[in-house]
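Researcher: Next entry in the queue.
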Amino acid sequence: MIVKNHMTPGHEIVRPEFAGFVERRGTSRFPLREEVRYKLVHGKVITAGTGTTVNFGSGGILFTTEHRLPMGRTIELSVNWPARLDGTCALKFVATGRIIRSEDGQAAVRIDRYEFRTRATRAN
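Model: Structure for this entry, 124 residues:
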């Protein structure tokens, strides 16, 4: 469903609606299904896991998790990037951010910092 908010005559903002909630993000999300590895460090305790990205935007990532992650905590994510550098070199997207939404099996992270790194390829 699409919700239209009329601002002035002749102008409107079109926002998708899902499950009764109107999308309020200012940036677009793109469906991207790639492996994600995550790590939370709290003192000497490290919580690590793997999952799959659900969608990706310039400000955040929604991904599946092995267990519920604690809200507000800093997390490091590593995502295998589908594009290759110069068409040959495999890349990974590495980001740190805060967990802004968490439920069983899924978490959303607001990205604070990111970089692209080359990733090793496995020899057959």
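Model: The domain at 26-118 is CATH 2.40.10.220 (Thrombin, subunit H).
Researcher: Noted, moving on.
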